[in-house]
Amino acid sequence: MPNTPRHFINLRDFDADLLKDIIKNAHQLKAQKFNPPQLFKGLSLAMMFDKRSTRTRMSFEVAMKQLGGHSIVLNKSDIQLGGSESVESTAQVMSRFVDGIMLRLSDHAMMEELAKHATIPVINGMTDISHPCQIMADVMTIEEKLGGIQGKKIAWFGDYNNVTQSFVDASEKFDFEFIAAVPEDIIPTADKRCTVTSDAKAAAKDADVLVTDTWVSMGQEGKTLDKFWPYQVNSGLMALAKEHAIFMHCMPIHEWEEVSQDVAKSPASVILDEAENRLHAQKAILAWCLEETGVVV
Ligand code: CP
Ligand code: NVA
């Protein structure tokens, strides 16, 4: 059992070179997708969700299976956590059963608390303030499509949410320009680590990547959409970007809200490759987290 588990919770806590190595391994594992190395033989991953998931759940489950390991899915509503059992006990007990835990927990502080008491790696499968595994797959996709990420202009549109915040973290590690165009009243006042504007056209101008996400994250149902319409990624915004610009979205998409259908389905849209890259990125993240359990990265 490692003394210090290799948690994967906040991109901002990582050394840039380590994140780059993980991405490099993700590309290698993608190249080996028809002959995956059996790195996780005998290892088990527990997964817990307090919100819906298609890509995160499938990518981790298939990643474990393809590399020879096993996974168990626990719905938060079915287990003792949140009932009579504490986060501490849950973390301690889970650490005796499996080799890693991947969680989608709205409450980021609860995830940190669980990691504090776990003696095995804890991986962030999304909280209300971050989605690091998604952004690792996005970095991988940009490298794949544009030949690199350093110095590229990545323009974000719409809501300033969990995915946006992990993108900001990544911009500092992978050295790209990140500009977010969001309605005036949601421009964050505290976090000054990237340019945030209410001018969507200025953000799109000469961008290499246009990226968006739902305007209504899970748990925010009932939100008014009026102020977001100027931030819809449509052919007008795409026309301002560089000729080779790509469109990205972590999915699920809401066509004709945050993105027009013609853009979502255009040749510039790389959303399905981006979704597939969740699988390869997850394998590389798991390989790093589980390395001290005997995995050879
Ligand atoms: N992008 C993403 O995390 O998708 P899921 O919510 O389906 O896992
Ligand atoms: N911002 C979205 C991402 C879903 C993958 C949400 O939190 O619902």
Q: What does this protein look like?
A:
With 297 residues, this protein is of the alpha/beta class. It folds into two domains: 11-131 and 276-293, Rossmann fold (3-Layer(aba) Sandwich); 132-271, Rossmann fold. The protein is 37% helix and 14% strand. The chain has helices at 16-31, 55-66, 87-97, 108-117, 132-146, 162-174, 200-204, 235-238, 261-264, 271-289; strands at 44-49, 70-75, 100-104, 122-124, 153-157, 177-181, 195-197, 209-212, 246-249. The strands form two sheets. The chain has a five-stranded parallel sheet with strand order 7-6-5-8-9. A four-stranded parallel sheet has the order 2-1-3-4, with helices on both faces. The longest helix is centred in the last third of the chain and has 19 residues, at 271-289. The two termini are 18 Å apart. Phosphoric acid mono(formamide)ester binds at residues 53-56, 126, 134, 250-251.
Q: What are its keywords?
A:
297 residues, alpha/beta, Rossmann fold, five-stranded parallel beta sheet, binds norvaline
Topology of this structure?
Layout: H1 16-31, E1 44-49, H2 55-66, E2 70-75, H3 87-97, E3 100-104, H4 108-117, E4 122-124, H5 132-146, E5 153-157, H6 162-174, E6 177-181, E7 195-197, H7 200-204, E8 209-212, H8 235-238, E9 246-249, H9 261-264, H10 271-289
The protein binds phosphoric acid mono(formamide)ester (CP) and norvaline.
